[in-house]
Amino acid sequence: MSEIAFSAEAMEVVKKIIKRYPEGRQKSALLPVLHVAQAEFDGWLSPEVMDYVASILEIKPIEVYEVASFYTMYNLQPVGKCLLEVCQTGPCMLNGADDLVAYLENKLNIKVGETTTDGMFTLKTVECLGSCGTAPMLQCGADYHENLTNEKADALIEKLRTDNKRSRYC
Amino acid sequence: MGRKILLEHENVPGIETLEVYRKMGGYRAAEKAIKSMAPDDVTEEVKKAGLRGRGGAGFPAGMKWSFIDKKSDKPRYLVCNADESEPGTFKDRYLMEKIPHALVEGMIVSSYALGAKTSYIYIRGEYFYVLRILEKAIAEAYEAGLLGKNIFGTDYSLDLYVQIGGGAYICGEETALLESLEGKRGNPRMKPPFPAISGLYASPTVVNNVETIAAVPHIVNMSGDEYAKIGIERSTGTKLISASGHINKPGVYEIELGLPVEEFIYSDEYCGGIKDGRKLKAMIAGGSSVPILPAHLITKTANGDARLMTYESLSDGGFASGTMLGSGGFIIMDETACIVRHTWTLARFYHHESCGQCSPCREGTGWMEKVLHRIEHGHGTMKDIDLLVDISKKIEGNTICPLGDAAAWPVASAIRHFREEFEYHVLNPEKIKDPKHFEKEPFVSSVTQNA
Asked: For residues A36 and A56, what is the distance between their CA atoms, to the nearest angstrom?
């Protein structure tokens, strides 16, 4: 296994983040740095990656694990190239979130929580994304796809397949 | 047309840029405050304005500011709560996305008032694209000398940073937010001490919602007294309302507090009425946590007075017949909606978002979700309905932070006002098999029948 290390570019970003806090408070950088790490290392946080982040921030590995496991946006298992996060809370449910989930399950031939056999898509349901007025919707990387219909979902899946890029928040 | 303050320029092309924002009068308040007002004078104006916290609690902002420990020799911090996660609420996102400089200027003026030299905007992780918009606006402000050292050539210096979260509703609770900003799990802290005494890095800290902070420059420009003239009594100013659900025109609307609820729902200026001409069934006025109200208590209070969009009128009648303005997350349900199903999704939400620190919330939210799932899927019993009420009572008031109450209220109020619908689910498991069971044949209760 190759040694885990941020690219020079990512390291620059991390250093800039750490400078936002008073001296000795570099642990404050943990959440943003975990996002950078997740984007750098294939969309998930392996124990090795978390240990690496701990070493950079000069904190104990457990301090990283407990945070990474608390927040929903950090994936502790590998995910498909494109993570489709469908909001299913109240207002989205009123406007067709259940139908959208069923449609995507059927189209991708997977259940919620699963990844397509080609490793392209992981389907996940999430709680309120603050897009209640534009329901139903899903998030893929940093992008919100709103007011979705079956046709729009088809077009989105098609586009993601063609682009063939890993979805990332940052 | 209602008066707009925060969103007056929402449709001006380029308003997201510093250049256009300044052309429309932006950063005048920052200049006025920093150059010609003492910090305490700014706080005094905010007090006079009667501005109440727009995140949900409605606590007077000026008073919150005045609690900050000025005797401490530690640095003071202002932290903006942009962790908007209350289901039904998307107003801060809209404001930050459309007019990012409104928040940046608000942060400058408010930080000056509080004597903060470093301030943070904590934004929910899912809003990554909004983070980029804010960072761009902040970079423009630094470039123009509006942030950084010696702002407007004075002694006042301020650094402003945006912190991204990792996906956790609980971080909207101010002490959980501070924990998160320190790089920890979002477990709320015991209070006291309050953040004003011991907040970020154990230093005096004020945490305010995006909309609250964005209102401050307008108060400085027009004076607190003038701002207080807008609205009704203790509900001063304007409020952003996120409208969603079964309405013709979902979206974010700025209203003058005091607007009748009926006008808000049915006027074309706002929600534009109920979708497809169907009947109004229920309203959640202030985000998913506040009690749901049935049709006959929406446009009128129990006394028969017109229900207004104010803190006081919405809570008229207490929880027996009223609700709360909360965050302004306004969810409308028509006759095809299933209250049990909707309440189940909310219970699932709170179970998912409970931080796990207090056992009544950690265990209770899971039980409520399970019992509601059972009733909605045709396996419930009559005893389950009372069990839900019992669980909600045992969570309410027994947790460190308000998430417990927030989880208990939607369930308790749904049963309070829609008990017959819960009973129908228990008695008619065959009729509710289709998840959209009320779409073709709306449920009629004795209350709706007599309405």
From this structure: 13
In contact, B129 and A142? CB cutoff 8 Å:
yes
Selecting from A34, A90, A130 the residue whose C-beta is nearest the C-beta of B85 gives A130
Cα gap A23→A26, rounded to integer Å:
7
Whether A81 and chain B come into contact, CB under 8 Å, resolves to no
Helix (H, G, I), strand (E, B) or coil at B444: coil
3-state helix, strand, coil in chain B (%, to 5): 45, 15, 40
Q: Where are the beta strands (DSSP E) in B152-287?
A: 159-164, 205-209, 231-232, 235-236, 238-245, 251-256, 280-284
What CATH architecture applies to the domain B339-450?
Up-down Bundle (1.20)
Q: Which of B183, B186, B333 sits opposite A28 (nearest CB)?
A: B183
Q: Which CATH class is domain B240-334?
A: alpha beta
Residue contacts between A and B (CB atoms, under 8 Å): 150
Are B122 and B181 in contact, with CB atoms under 8 Å apart?
yes
Please give the backbone phi and psi of residue B256, each rounded to the nearest 5 degrees, phi first.
Answer: -80, 130
What the block records as the tokens of B48 is: 């006079």
Q: Which numeric CATH code is attached to B18-229?
A: 3.40.50.11540
- Interchain proximity A133–B166, CB inside 8 Å: no
Which of B93, B164, B437 would best serve as a mutation to test chain A binding (most A beta carbons within 10 A)?
B164
DSSP string, B264-277: HHH-TTTT-SBGGG
Cα–Cα distance, B284 to B424 (Å, whole number):
22
Label residue B147 exposed, middle or buried (CB < 10 Å: 0-12, 13-18, 19+).
buried
Q: Where are the domains of chain B?
A: 18-229, 240-334, 339-450
Note whether A73 contacts B181, CB cutoff 8 Å.
no
Q: What is the DSSP letter of B185?
A: -
Please give the average pLDDT of every successive group of 10 residues along chain B, which has 451 residues.
91 98 98 98 98 95 96 97 97 98 98 98 98 98 98 98 98 98 98 97 98 98 97 96 98 98 98 96 97 97 97 96 97 97 97 97 98 97 98 97 97 98 97 92 82 60
Q: Which domains does chain A have, with CATH numbers?
A: 8-68 (1.10.10), 82-163 (3.40.30.10)
Residues linked to residue A139 through DSSP beta bridges, in sequence order: A85, A144
ipTM computed for the complex? 0.97
Structure tokens at B214: 């964005």
